Amino acid sequence: MNVVYLSGGVGGARLAHGLARALPANALTLAVNTGDDLWHWGLRICPDLDTVMYTLADLAAVERGWGLHEETFAALSFVSRYGGETWFQLGDHDLGTHLMRSEWLRAGASLTDVTARLCRGLGVAHAIVPMSDSACETMIETAAGTRTFQRWLVQERAQLDATRVWFRRENEAAQTAASPSLLAALDAADLVVIGPSNPFVSIDPILGCTGVRERLARLPVIAVSPIVRGGAVKGPLARMLATLSQAEATPQAIADHYGALLNGFVGEVGDALPEATLPCHAAQTIMATRDDSLRLAREVLGFAERILAARA
Amino acid sequence: MNVVYLSGGVGGARLAHGLARALPANALTLAVNTGDDLWHWGLRICPDLDTVMYTLADLAAVERGWGLHEETFAALSFVSRYGGETWFQLGDHDLGTHLMRSEWLRAGASLTDVTARLCRGLGVAHAIVPMSDSACETMIETAAGTRTFQRWLVQERAQLDATRVWFRRENEAAQTAASPSLLAALDAADLVVIGPSNPFVSIDPILGCTGVRERLARLPVIAVSPIVRGGAVKGPLARMLATLSQAEATPQAIADHYGALLNGFVGEVGDALPEATLPCHAAQTIMATRDDSLRLAREVLGFAERILAARA
Protein backbone atom coordinates (compact mmCIF):
# COMPACT_ATOMS: atom_id res chain seq x y z
CA MET A 1 0.00 0.00 0.00
CA ASN A 2 1.51 3.32 -1.12
CA VAL A 3 0.59 6.16 1.22
CA VAL A 4 0.85 9.91 0.77
CA TYR A 5 0.59 11.79 4.05
CA LEU A 6 -0.29 15.51 4.06
CA SER A 7 1.26 17.38 6.95
CA GLY A 8 1.79 20.71 8.60
CA GLY A 9 4.08 21.16 11.59
CA VAL A 10 4.06 19.67 15.08
CA GLY A 11 0.84 17.61 15.20
CA GLY A 12 1.30 16.41 11.65
CA ALA A 13 4.94 15.58 12.32
CA ARG A 14 4.13 13.30 15.24
CA LEU A 15 1.88 11.10 13.18
CA ALA A 16 4.46 11.26 10.37
CA HIS A 17 6.94 9.72 12.80
CA GLY A 18 4.56 6.86 13.55
CA LEU A 19 3.78 6.27 9.88
CA ALA A 20 7.50 6.22 9.06
CA ARG A 21 8.02 3.52 11.67
CA ALA A 22 5.00 1.57 10.41
CA LEU A 23 5.78 1.76 6.68
CA PRO A 24 8.94 1.14 4.66
CA ALA A 25 10.55 4.13 2.96
CA ASN A 26 9.31 3.15 -0.49
CA ALA A 27 5.66 3.02 0.68
CA LEU A 28 5.31 6.48 2.26
CA THR A 29 5.67 10.03 0.97
CA LEU A 30 5.36 12.89 3.43
CA ALA A 31 3.97 15.93 1.61
CA VAL A 32 4.48 19.05 3.64
CA ASN A 33 3.00 22.53 3.69
CA THR A 34 5.36 25.32 2.65
CA GLY A 35 2.90 28.21 3.04
CA ASP A 36 4.59 29.15 6.34
CA ASP A 37 8.02 29.52 4.73
CA LEU A 38 9.81 32.83 5.11
CA TRP A 39 13.03 34.67 4.48
CA HIS A 40 14.54 35.62 7.82
CA TRP A 41 18.08 36.88 8.52
CA GLY A 42 18.60 36.39 4.78
CA LEU A 43 17.88 32.67 5.08
CA ARG A 44 15.06 30.56 3.68
CA ILE A 45 13.20 28.99 6.59
CA CYS A 46 10.72 26.14 6.03
CA PRO A 47 9.20 25.57 9.47
CA ASP A 48 6.94 22.65 8.61
CA LEU A 49 9.46 20.81 6.43
CA ASP A 50 12.04 21.18 9.19
CA THR A 51 9.67 20.04 11.93
CA VAL A 52 8.80 16.90 9.96
CA MET A 53 12.46 16.27 9.06
CA TYR A 54 13.78 16.83 12.57
CA THR A 55 10.96 14.72 14.04
CA LEU A 56 11.73 11.82 11.71
CA ALA A 57 15.44 12.14 12.57
CA ASP A 58 14.53 12.04 16.28
CA LEU A 59 16.18 15.44 16.67
CA ALA A 60 13.12 17.63 17.30
CA ALA A 61 12.65 19.62 20.49
CA VAL A 62 9.41 17.97 21.56
CA GLU A 63 8.64 20.22 24.54
CA ARG A 64 9.55 23.51 22.84
CA GLY A 65 7.50 22.53 19.81
CA TRP A 66 9.94 23.86 17.19
CA GLY A 67 13.57 23.48 16.27
CA LEU A 68 16.11 21.03 17.58
CA HIS A 69 16.58 19.50 20.99
CA GLU A 70 19.75 20.38 22.92
CA GLU A 71 19.86 23.60 20.95
CA THR A 72 21.89 26.75 21.70
CA PHE A 73 21.20 30.35 20.66
CA ALA A 74 24.58 32.02 20.35
CA ALA A 75 23.98 33.51 16.89
CA LEU A 76 20.67 34.93 18.11
CA SER A 77 22.47 36.68 20.97
CA PHE A 78 24.73 38.45 18.46
CA VAL A 79 21.88 39.26 16.09
CA SER A 80 20.19 40.85 19.09
CA ARG A 81 23.30 42.96 19.83
CA TYR A 82 23.18 44.25 16.26
CA GLY A 83 19.52 45.19 16.53
CA GLY A 84 18.42 42.42 14.16
CA GLU A 85 15.01 40.82 14.36
CA THR A 86 14.65 38.38 17.25
CA TRP A 87 10.93 37.59 17.20
CA PHE A 88 11.57 34.47 15.11
CA GLN A 89 14.27 32.54 16.91
CA LEU A 90 16.72 30.31 15.12
CA GLY A 91 19.03 28.00 17.04
CA ASP A 92 22.67 27.42 16.21
CA HIS A 93 22.46 23.81 14.96
CA ASP A 94 19.27 24.73 13.10
CA LEU A 95 21.19 27.52 11.33
CA GLY A 96 23.30 24.86 9.65
CA THR A 97 20.11 23.63 7.97
CA HIS A 98 18.98 27.08 6.87
CA LEU A 99 22.45 28.10 5.68
CA MET A 100 22.79 25.06 3.43
CA ARG A 101 19.20 25.29 2.17
CA SER A 102 19.60 28.97 1.32
CA GLU A 103 22.94 28.48 -0.38
CA TRP A 104 21.62 25.60 -2.50
CA LEU A 105 18.42 27.46 -3.39
CA ARG A 106 20.44 30.53 -4.42
CA ALA A 107 22.58 28.23 -6.57
CA GLY A 108 19.41 27.20 -8.41
CA ALA A 109 18.41 23.90 -6.77
CA SER A 110 14.70 23.20 -6.29
CA LEU A 111 13.25 23.03 -2.79
CA THR A 112 12.45 19.38 -3.51
CA ASP A 113 16.10 18.59 -4.22
CA VAL A 114 17.33 20.69 -1.30
CA THR A 115 14.95 18.91 1.07
CA ALA A 116 16.08 15.49 -0.15
CA ARG A 117 19.71 16.48 0.37
CA LEU A 118 19.03 17.73 3.89
CA CYS A 119 17.14 14.52 4.71
CA ARG A 120 20.06 12.42 3.52
CA GLY A 121 22.35 14.41 5.80
CA LEU A 122 20.19 13.58 8.80
CA GLY A 123 19.67 9.95 7.83
CA VAL A 124 15.95 10.36 7.11
CA ALA A 125 15.06 7.51 4.75
CA HIS A 126 11.45 8.41 3.95
CA ALA A 127 10.72 10.95 1.23
CA ILE A 128 9.76 14.36 2.58
CA VAL A 129 8.52 16.51 -0.30
CA PRO A 130 7.46 20.15 -0.26
CA MET A 131 3.98 20.77 -1.61
CA SER A 132 5.55 23.12 -4.15
CA ASP A 133 8.90 24.36 -5.40
CA SER A 134 7.37 27.83 -5.81
CA ALA A 135 6.68 30.38 -3.13
CA CYS A 136 3.11 30.45 -1.84
CA GLU A 137 2.77 32.59 1.26
CA THR A 138 -0.10 32.05 3.65
CA MET A 139 -1.53 35.47 4.44
CA ILE A 140 -3.74 36.20 7.43
CA GLU A 141 -6.23 39.04 7.28
CA THR A 142 -7.20 40.60 10.59
CA ALA A 143 -9.16 43.67 11.68
CA ALA A 144 -5.79 45.45 11.95
CA GLY A 145 -4.54 44.47 8.50
CA THR A 146 -2.90 41.60 6.67
CA ARG A 147 0.17 39.74 7.92
CA THR A 148 2.31 36.85 6.73
CA PHE A 149 1.55 33.70 8.69
CA GLN A 150 4.65 33.68 10.91
CA ARG A 151 4.25 37.38 11.77
CA TRP A 152 0.71 36.70 12.84
CA LEU A 153 1.37 33.43 14.69
CA VAL A 154 4.82 33.95 16.21
CA GLN A 155 5.40 37.69 16.41
CA GLU A 156 1.82 38.64 17.35
CA ARG A 157 1.02 35.31 19.03
CA ALA A 158 -2.19 35.03 17.00
CA GLN A 159 -3.81 37.63 19.24
CA LEU A 160 -5.89 39.06 16.41
CA ASP A 161 -8.68 36.96 14.93
CA ALA A 162 -8.11 35.74 11.40
CA THR A 163 -10.94 37.06 9.24
CA ARG A 164 -9.63 35.53 6.02
CA VAL A 165 -6.79 33.30 4.88
CA TRP A 166 -5.36 33.60 1.39
CA PHE A 167 -2.21 32.67 -0.46
CA ARG A 168 0.25 35.12 -2.01
CA ARG A 169 1.91 33.49 -4.99
CA GLU A 170 4.76 34.30 -7.33
CA ASN A 171 2.15 34.58 -10.06
CA GLU A 172 -0.90 36.06 -8.34
CA ALA A 173 -3.29 34.91 -11.01
CA ALA A 174 -2.19 31.29 -11.19
CA GLN A 175 -2.59 28.40 -8.82
CA THR A 176 0.55 27.29 -7.03
CA ALA A 177 2.30 24.56 -9.02
CA ALA A 178 2.50 21.36 -7.00
CA SER A 179 5.99 19.89 -6.82
CA PRO A 180 6.49 17.17 -9.44
CA SER A 181 7.48 14.83 -6.59
CA LEU A 182 4.14 15.34 -4.87
CA LEU A 183 2.15 14.72 -8.06
CA ALA A 184 4.20 11.61 -8.83
CA ALA A 185 3.62 10.29 -5.31
CA LEU A 186 -0.12 10.90 -5.64
CA ASP A 187 -0.17 9.16 -9.00
CA ALA A 188 1.36 6.09 -7.37
CA ALA A 189 -0.70 6.28 -4.18
CA ASP A 190 -3.30 3.86 -2.87
CA LEU A 191 -4.23 6.05 0.08
CA VAL A 192 -3.96 9.64 1.27
CA VAL A 193 -3.87 10.46 4.97
CA ILE A 194 -4.46 14.04 6.08
CA GLY A 195 -2.61 14.62 9.33
CA PRO A 196 -4.00 16.24 12.48
CA SER A 197 -2.86 19.66 11.28
CA ASN A 198 -4.68 22.96 10.94
CA PRO A 199 -6.91 22.67 7.84
CA PHE A 200 -6.83 26.39 7.04
CA VAL A 201 -3.09 27.07 7.20
CA SER A 202 -1.44 23.65 6.95
CA ILE A 203 -3.57 21.47 4.68
CA ASP A 204 -5.46 23.95 2.47
CA PRO A 205 -2.18 25.28 1.01
CA ILE A 206 -1.34 21.74 -0.13
CA LEU A 207 -4.84 21.15 -1.47
CA GLY A 208 -4.59 24.42 -3.36
CA CYS A 209 -1.66 23.29 -5.49
CA THR A 210 -2.36 22.37 -9.12
CA GLY A 211 -3.58 18.82 -9.62
CA VAL A 212 -3.79 17.87 -5.96
CA ARG A 213 -7.56 18.05 -5.41
CA GLU A 214 -8.23 16.23 -8.70
CA ARG A 215 -5.96 13.37 -7.65
CA LEU A 216 -7.39 13.22 -4.14
CA ALA A 217 -10.90 12.95 -5.60
CA ARG A 218 -9.87 9.63 -7.18
CA LEU A 219 -8.16 8.26 -4.05
CA PRO A 220 -9.35 7.09 -0.66
CA VAL A 221 -8.62 9.95 1.74
CA ILE A 222 -8.67 9.68 5.51
CA ALA A 223 -8.35 12.68 7.83
CA VAL A 224 -7.13 12.54 11.40
CA SER A 225 -8.85 15.12 13.56
CA PRO A 226 -6.81 18.02 14.93
CA ILE A 227 -9.75 18.79 17.21
CA VAL A 228 -9.91 16.80 20.44
CA ARG A 229 -12.41 17.28 23.26
CA GLY A 230 -13.68 20.57 21.90
CA GLY A 231 -10.36 22.26 21.25
CA ALA A 232 -7.20 22.23 19.19
CA VAL A 233 -4.33 20.19 20.59
CA LYS A 234 -2.08 23.14 19.75
CA GLY A 235 -2.41 26.50 18.04
CA PRO A 236 -5.20 28.84 16.98
CA LEU A 237 -7.42 26.34 15.15
CA ALA A 238 -10.43 26.53 17.49
CA ARG A 239 -10.71 30.30 17.05
CA MET A 240 -10.14 30.01 13.32
CA LEU A 241 -13.07 27.57 13.03
CA ALA A 242 -15.21 30.17 14.80
CA THR A 243 -14.15 33.17 12.70
CA LEU A 244 -13.60 31.50 9.35
CA SER A 245 -16.25 28.74 9.34
CA GLN A 246 -18.68 30.03 11.97
CA ALA A 247 -18.33 26.55 13.44
CA GLU A 248 -17.71 25.03 16.84
CA ALA A 249 -14.43 23.23 17.42
CA THR A 250 -15.72 19.75 16.66
CA PRO A 251 -14.61 16.81 14.51
CA GLN A 252 -17.74 17.49 12.42
CA ALA A 253 -16.41 20.96 11.58
CA ILE A 254 -13.16 19.39 10.34
CA ALA A 255 -15.07 16.83 8.26
CA ASP A 256 -17.26 19.60 6.86
CA HIS A 257 -14.20 21.64 5.96
CA TYR A 258 -12.76 18.86 3.78
CA GLY A 259 -16.23 17.86 2.53
CA ALA A 260 -16.45 15.37 -0.31
CA LEU A 261 -12.68 14.81 -0.38
CA LEU A 262 -12.90 12.50 2.64
CA ASN A 263 -13.58 8.79 2.65
CA GLY A 264 -12.88 8.20 6.30
CA PHE A 265 -12.28 10.03 9.55
CA VAL A 266 -10.24 9.25 12.65
CA GLY A 267 -11.15 11.15 15.82
CA GLU A 268 -10.61 10.98 19.54
CA VAL A 269 -12.27 8.26 21.60
CA GLY A 270 -15.30 9.76 23.32
CA ASP A 271 -15.69 12.71 20.93
CA ALA A 272 -18.76 12.93 18.70
CA LEU A 273 -17.43 11.89 15.28
CA PRO A 274 -19.06 12.67 11.88
CA GLU A 275 -20.47 9.17 11.62
CA ALA A 276 -23.62 10.30 9.81
CA THR A 277 -21.61 11.22 6.73
CA LEU A 278 -18.38 9.19 6.89
CA PRO A 279 -16.86 5.93 8.07
CA CYS A 280 -15.24 6.87 11.35
CA HIS A 281 -12.70 5.35 13.69
CA ALA A 282 -12.20 6.40 17.29
CA ALA A 283 -8.64 6.28 18.62
CA GLN A 284 -6.37 7.91 21.18
CA THR A 285 -5.14 10.72 18.95
CA ILE A 286 -3.00 12.65 21.42
CA MET A 287 0.61 11.63 20.74
CA ALA A 288 2.85 12.33 23.71
CA THR A 289 5.40 9.63 22.98
CA ARG A 290 6.94 7.95 19.95
CA ASP A 291 4.97 4.84 20.82
CA ASP A 292 1.73 6.84 20.85
CA SER A 293 2.58 7.93 17.31
CA LEU A 294 3.28 4.40 16.15
CA ARG A 295 0.11 3.06 17.73
CA LEU A 296 -2.04 5.76 16.12
CA ALA A 297 -0.32 5.24 12.76
CA ARG A 298 -1.12 1.54 12.88
CA GLU A 299 -4.75 2.24 13.80
CA VAL A 300 -5.09 4.71 10.92
CA LEU A 301 -3.56 2.22 8.49
CA GLY A 302 -5.75 -0.61 9.77
CA PHE A 303 -8.85 1.57 9.42
CA ALA A 304 -7.73 2.49 5.89
CA GLU A 305 -7.33 -1.15 4.93
CA ARG A 306 -10.91 -1.80 5.95
CA ILE A 307 -12.09 1.17 3.87
CA LEU A 308 -10.02 0.02 0.88
CA ALA A 309 -11.40 -3.51 1.25
CA ALA A 310 -14.94 -2.13 1.30
CA ARG A 311 -14.25 -0.13 -1.90
CA ALA A 312 -12.71 -3.12 -3.68
CA MET B 1 46.69 64.64 15.71
CA ASN B 2 44.41 62.73 13.31
CA VAL B 3 45.71 59.26 12.57
CA VAL B 4 44.73 56.78 9.87
CA TYR B 5 45.92 53.26 10.60
CA LEU B 6 46.17 50.66 7.81
CA SER B 7 45.56 47.14 9.00
CA GLY B 8 45.19 43.53 8.01
CA GLY B 9 44.14 40.85 10.49
CA VAL B 10 45.69 39.63 13.72
CA GLY B 11 49.00 41.53 13.97
CA GLY B 12 47.42 44.69 12.68
CA ALA B 13 44.46 44.29 15.02
CA ARG B 14 46.65 44.13 18.12
CA LEU B 15 48.28 47.47 17.43
CA ALA B 16 44.83 48.82 16.48
CA HIS B 17 43.71 47.93 20.00
CA GLY B 18 46.61 49.89 21.49
CA LEU B 19 46.01 52.89 19.25
CA ALA B 20 42.32 52.89 20.14
CA ARG B 21 43.22 53.06 23.81
CA ALA B 22 45.81 55.78 23.18
CA LEU B 23 43.68 58.02 20.95
CA PRO B 24 40.10 59.32 21.23
CA ALA B 25 37.55 58.03 18.75
CA ASN B 26 37.54 61.24 16.74
CA ALA B 27 41.34 61.12 16.21
CA LEU B 28 41.74 57.60 14.79
CA THR B 29 40.39 55.82 11.72
CA LEU B 30 41.17 52.13 11.27
CA ALA B 31 41.30 51.35 7.54
CA VAL B 32 41.11 47.63 6.95
CA ASN B 33 41.98 45.29 4.10
CA THR B 34 39.00 43.59 2.45
CA GLY B 35 40.97 41.61 -0.15
CA ASP B 36 40.51 38.47 1.98
CA ASP B 37 36.70 38.75 1.97
CA LEU B 38 34.72 35.82 0.68
CA TRP B 39 31.25 34.40 0.23
CA HIS B 40 30.96 31.24 2.31
CA TRP B 41 27.79 29.35 3.25
CA GLY B 42 25.98 32.11 1.34
CA LEU B 43 27.34 34.71 3.76
CA ARG B 44 29.71 37.60 3.22
CA ILE B 45 32.74 37.08 5.47
CA CYS B 46 35.23 39.91 6.07
CA PRO B 47 37.99 38.26 8.10
CA ASP B 48 40.18 41.32 8.66
CA LEU B 49 37.33 43.71 9.42
CA ASP B 50 35.96 41.23 11.92
CA THR B 51 39.33 40.59 13.55
CA VAL B 52 39.84 44.32 14.06
CA MET B 53 36.26 44.82 15.26
CA TYR B 54 36.28 41.86 17.66
CA THR B 55 39.74 42.86 18.94
CA LEU B 56 38.60 46.40 19.68
CA ALA B 57 35.47 45.03 21.39
CA ASP B 58 37.71 42.76 23.53
CA LEU B 59 35.84 39.76 22.11
CA ALA B 60 38.54 38.23 19.92
CA ALA B 61 39.87 34.72 20.45
CA VAL B 62 43.48 35.74 21.05
CA GLU B 63 44.98 32.23 21.18
CA ARG B 64 43.00 30.82 18.22
CA GLY B 65 43.88 33.87 16.14
CA TRP B 66 40.47 34.27 14.47
CA GLY B 67 36.85 34.59 15.51
CA LEU B 68 35.37 35.11 18.93
CA HIS B 69 36.46 33.88 22.33
CA GLU B 70 34.15 31.47 24.17
CA GLU B 71 32.82 30.41 20.78
CA THR B 72 30.77 27.31 19.91
CA PHE B 73 30.48 25.49 16.58
CA ALA B 74 27.01 23.96 16.52
CA ALA B 75 26.03 25.28 13.07
CA LEU B 76 29.30 23.94 11.68
CA SER B 77 28.45 20.48 13.01
CA PHE B 78 25.18 20.52 11.05
CA VAL B 79 26.78 21.94 7.93
CA SER B 80 29.20 19.04 8.16
CA ARG B 81 26.31 16.55 8.39
CA TYR B 82 24.90 18.00 5.19
CA GLY B 83 28.20 17.70 3.37
CA GLY B 84 28.73 21.48 3.27
CA GLU B 85 32.19 23.01 3.20
CA THR B 86 33.96 22.91 6.56
CA TRP B 87 37.46 24.09 5.68
CA PHE B 88 36.57 27.65 6.66
CA GLN B 89 35.08 27.45 10.11
CA LEU B 90 32.50 29.90 11.36
CA GLY B 91 31.45 29.95 15.00
CA ASP B 92 27.91 30.38 16.22
CA HIS B 93 28.17 33.87 17.75
CA ASP B 94 30.26 34.93 14.76
CA LEU B 95 27.43 33.79 12.46
CA GLY B 96 25.26 36.52 13.95
CA THR B 97 27.74 39.03 12.50
CA HIS B 98 27.84 37.42 9.07
CA LEU B 99 24.07 36.95 8.91
CA MET B 100 23.37 40.60 9.63
CA ARG B 101 26.15 41.83 7.33
CA SER B 102 24.91 39.66 4.46
CA GLU B 103 21.30 40.64 4.95
CA TRP B 104 22.13 44.36 5.02
CA LEU B 105 24.46 44.09 2.01
CA ARG B 106 21.77 42.24 0.05
CA ALA B 107 19.35 45.01 1.00
CA GLY B 108 21.70 47.48 -0.67
CA ALA B 109 23.73 48.94 2.20
CA SER B 110 27.42 49.69 1.61
CA LEU B 111 30.08 47.69 3.43
CA THR B 112 31.10 50.95 5.12
CA ASP B 113 27.61 51.44 6.54
CA VAL B 114 27.26 47.78 7.47
CA THR B 115 30.60 47.86 9.30
CA ALA B 116 29.62 50.99 11.22
CA ARG B 117 26.33 49.36 12.24
CA LEU B 118 28.09 46.20 13.43
CA CYS B 119 30.62 48.28 15.38
CA ARG B 120 27.81 50.17 17.13
CA GLY B 121 26.28 46.85 18.11
CA LEU B 122 29.49 45.77 19.80
CA GLY B 123 30.16 49.14 21.40
CA VAL B 124 33.23 49.90 19.28
CA ALA B 125 33.60 53.67 19.33
CA HIS B 126 36.47 54.12 16.88
CA ALA B 127 35.74 54.19 13.15
CA ILE B 128 36.60 50.94 11.37
CA VAL B 129 36.34 51.49 7.62
CA PRO B 130 36.76 48.98 4.82
CA MET B 131 39.35 49.97 2.23
CA SER B 132 36.60 49.71 -0.39
CA ASP B 133 32.88 49.13 -0.77
CA SER B 134 33.61 47.11 -3.91
CA ALA B 135 34.86 43.55 -4.15
CA CYS B 136 38.60 43.19 -4.70
CA GLU B 137 39.76 39.62 -4.27
CA THR B 138 43.35 38.87 -3.44
CA MET B 139 44.45 36.06 -5.77
CA ILE B 140 47.48 33.87 -5.15
CA GLU B 141 49.28 32.29 -8.10
CA THR B 142 51.18 29.09 -7.37
CA ALA B 143 52.91 26.43 -9.43
CA ALA B 144 49.67 24.44 -9.20
CA GLY B 145 47.36 27.24 -10.29
CA THR B 146 45.61 30.32 -8.94
CA ARG B 147 43.57 30.39 -5.76
CA THR B 148 41.59 32.93 -3.78
CA PHE B 149 43.47 34.04 -0.71
CA GLN B 150 41.47 32.10 1.91
CA ARG B 151 41.60 28.89 -0.16
CA TRP B 152 45.36 29.22 -0.34
CA LEU B 153 45.94 30.25 3.27
CA VAL B 154 43.27 28.34 5.18
CA GLN B 155 42.25 25.37 3.04
CA GLU B 156 45.74 24.61 1.67
CA ARG B 157 47.60 26.04 4.68
CA ALA B 158 49.83 28.10 2.35
CA GLN B 159 51.77 24.96 1.48
CA LEU B 160 52.40 26.14 -2.10
CA ASP B 161 54.71 29.07 -2.68
CA ALA B 162 53.03 32.21 -3.93
CA THR B 163 54.60 33.15 -7.26
CA ARG B 164 52.43 36.21 -7.82
CA VAL B 165 49.74 38.17 -5.98
CA TRP B 166 47.09 40.06 -7.89
CA PHE B 167 43.65 41.49 -7.30
CA ARG B 168 40.46 40.37 -9.01
CA ARG B 169 38.07 43.29 -9.22
CA GLU B 170 34.46 43.85 -10.19
CA ASN B 171 35.80 45.85 -13.12
CA GLU B 172 39.02 44.07 -14.12
CA ALA B 173 40.38 47.06 -15.99
CA ALA B 174 39.84 49.65 -13.28
CA GLN B 175 41.52 50.23 -9.95
CA THR B 176 39.46 49.36 -6.88
CA ALA B 177 37.53 52.40 -5.70
CA ALA B 178 38.57 53.36 -2.18
CA SER B 179 35.68 53.77 0.23
CA PRO B 180 34.66 57.43 0.56
CA SER B 181 35.16 57.08 4.31
CA LEU B 182 38.79 56.07 3.84
CA LEU B 183 39.49 58.95 1.46
CA ALA B 184 37.79 61.41 3.81
CA ALA B 185 39.85 60.11 6.73
CA LEU B 186 43.06 60.47 4.72
CA ASP B 187 42.11 64.00 3.69
CA ALA B 188 41.77 64.92 7.37
CA ALA B 189 44.82 62.96 8.53
CA ASP B 190 48.06 64.26 10.01
CA LEU B 191 49.71 60.84 10.10
CA VAL B 192 49.36 57.39 8.59
CA VAL B 193 50.56 54.30 10.44
CA ILE B 194 50.96 51.04 8.52
CA GLY B 195 50.40 48.17 10.92
CA PRO B 196 52.62 45.10 11.34
CA SER B 197 50.62 43.23 8.69
CA ASN B 198 51.66 41.33 5.60
CA PRO B 199 52.58 43.96 2.97
CA PHE B 200 51.62 41.75 0.01
CA VAL B 201 48.17 40.58 1.04
CA SER B 202 47.07 42.98 3.79
CA ILE B 203 48.50 46.42 3.00
CA ASP B 204 49.02 46.38 -0.79
CA PRO B 205 45.28 45.87 -1.40
CA ILE B 206 44.62 49.09 0.56
CA LEU B 207 47.41 50.96 -1.21
CA GLY B 208 45.97 49.82 -4.53
CA CYS B 209 42.66 51.59 -4.04
CA THR B 210 42.07 54.77 -6.02
CA GLY B 211 43.53 57.88 -4.44
CA VAL B 212 45.25 56.18 -1.53
CA ARG B 213 48.88 56.25 -2.71
CA GLU B 214 48.52 59.86 -3.83
CA ARG B 215 47.26 60.91 -0.41
CA LEU B 216 49.91 58.91 1.42
CA ALA B 217 52.61 60.61 -0.66
CA ARG B 218 51.57 63.93 0.92
CA LEU B 219 51.39 62.60 4.49
CA PRO B 220 53.95 61.38 7.01
CA VAL B 221 53.74 57.58 6.93
CA ILE B 222 55.27 55.26 9.51
CA ALA B 223 55.38 51.48 9.11
CA VAL B 224 55.63 49.01 11.96
CA SER B 225 57.64 45.94 10.98
CA PRO B 226 55.85 42.59 10.67
CA ILE B 227 59.29 40.97 10.52
CA VAL B 228 60.93 40.30 13.87
CA ARG B 229 64.21 38.46 14.41
CA GLY B 230 64.37 37.17 10.84
CA GLY B 231 60.85 35.85 10.57
CA ALA B 232 57.17 36.75 10.43
CA VAL B 233 55.39 36.88 13.77
CA LYS B 234 52.58 34.91 12.11
CA GLY B 235 51.71 33.67 8.63
CA PRO B 236 53.52 33.10 5.35
CA LEU B 237 55.24 36.49 5.02
CA ALA B 238 58.85 35.27 5.26
CA ARG B 239 58.37 32.85 2.36
CA MET B 240 56.47 35.46 0.35
CA LEU B 241 59.41 37.88 0.71
CA ALA B 242 61.64 35.15 -0.70
CA THR B 243 59.45 34.18 -3.65
CA LEU B 244 57.90 37.55 -4.49
CA SER B 245 60.73 39.98 -3.65
CA GLN B 246 63.75 37.68 -3.71
CA ALA B 247 64.52 39.17 -0.31
CA GLU B 248 65.47 37.91 3.12
CA ALA B 249 62.96 38.32 5.93
CA THR B 250 64.38 41.57 7.29
CA PRO B 251 63.01 44.96 8.30
CA GLN B 252 64.97 46.35 5.33
CA ALA B 253 62.90 44.19 2.95
CA ILE B 254 59.71 45.66 4.41
CA ALA B 255 61.05 49.21 4.10
CA ASP B 256 62.13 48.47 0.52
CA HIS B 257 58.67 47.10 -0.28
CA TYR B 258 56.95 50.36 0.72
CA GLY B 259 59.81 52.46 -0.72
CA ALA B 260 59.33 56.18 -0.96
CA LEU B 261 55.93 56.05 0.77
CA LEU B 262 57.61 55.77 4.18
CA ASN B 263 58.82 58.58 6.42
CA GLY B 264 59.62 56.45 9.43
CA PHE B 265 60.01 52.85 10.50
CA VAL B 266 59.44 51.04 13.79
CA GLY B 267 61.15 47.67 14.22
CA GLU B 268 62.10 45.24 16.92
CA VAL B 269 64.82 46.11 19.44
CA GLY B 270 67.99 44.30 18.41
CA ASP B 271 67.01 43.85 14.75
CA ALA B 272 68.94 45.64 12.03
CA LEU B 273 66.61 48.48 11.01
CA PRO B 274 66.70 50.43 7.70
CA GLU B 275 68.42 53.40 9.34
CA ALA B 276 70.46 54.26 6.25
CA THR B 277 67.32 55.33 4.41
CA LEU B 278 64.72 56.19 7.07
CA PRO B 279 64.27 57.55 10.57
CA CYS B 280 63.87 54.41 12.67
CA HIS B 281 62.67 53.57 16.14
CA ALA B 282 63.40 50.32 17.95
CA ALA B 283 60.67 48.97 20.21
CA GLN B 284 59.31 45.73 21.61
CA THR B 285 56.92 44.99 18.76
CA ILE B 286 55.58 41.60 19.87
CA MET B 287 52.19 42.24 21.46
CA ALA B 288 51.16 39.40 23.74
CA THR B 289 48.94 41.46 26.02
CA ARG B 290 46.65 44.48 25.77
CA ASP B 291 49.27 46.47 27.68
CA ASP B 292 51.94 45.48 25.16
CA SER B 293 49.66 46.91 22.46
CA LEU B 294 49.11 50.17 24.34
CA ARG B 295 52.81 50.59 25.07
CA LEU B 296 53.77 50.01 21.42
CA ALA B 297 51.00 52.36 20.24
CA ARG B 298 52.35 55.11 22.52
CA GLU B 299 55.90 54.55 21.26
CA VAL B 300 54.75 54.72 17.64
CA LEU B 301 52.82 57.92 18.32
CA GLY B 302 55.74 59.46 20.20
CA PHE B 303 58.10 58.59 17.35
CA ALA B 304 55.60 60.08 14.89
CA GLU B 305 55.44 63.32 16.85
CA ARG B 306 59.21 63.69 16.59
CA ILE B 307 59.03 63.10 12.83
CA LEU B 308 56.19 65.60 12.44
CA ALA B 309 58.13 68.15 14.51
CA ALA B 310 61.18 67.65 12.29
CA ARG B 311 59.03 68.21 9.15
CA ALA B 312 57.42 71.36 10.58
Strand ordering within the main sheet of chain A: 5-2-1-9-10-13-14
Total helix count of chain A?
Answer: 12
Low-pLDDT residue intervals, each spanning 5 or more residues of chain A = none
Assembly category: homodimer
Please summarize the sheet with the most strands of chain A: 7 strands, parallel
- What number is the mean pLDDT of chain A? 96
Beginning-to-end CA distance, first to last residue of chain A? 14 Å
Strand content of chain A: 15-25%
Based on CA atoms alone, the radius of gyration of chain A comes out at 19 Å
How does this model look, in words?
2 copies of one chain form a homodimer. The first copy, chain A, has 312 residues and is of the alpha/beta class. Chain A has 12 helices and 14 strands. In chain A, the strands form 4 sheets. Chain A has a 7-stranded parallel β-sheet with strand order 5-2-1-9-10-13-14, sandwiched between helices. The first copy, chain A, has a 3-stranded antiparallel β-sheet with strand order 7-6-8. Chain A has a two-stranded antiparallel sheet with strand order 3-4. The longest helix of chain A is centred in the C-terminal third of the chain and has 22 residues, at 290-311. The radius of gyration of chain A is 19 Å and the shape is globular. The model of chain A has no long low-confidence stretch (mean pLDDT 96). Chain A binds chain B through residues 41-43, 71-72, 74-84, 91-97, 99-100, 102-103, 106, 117-118, 121-122, and chain B through 41-43, 71-72, 74-84, 91-97, 99-100, 102-103, 106, 117-118, 121-122.
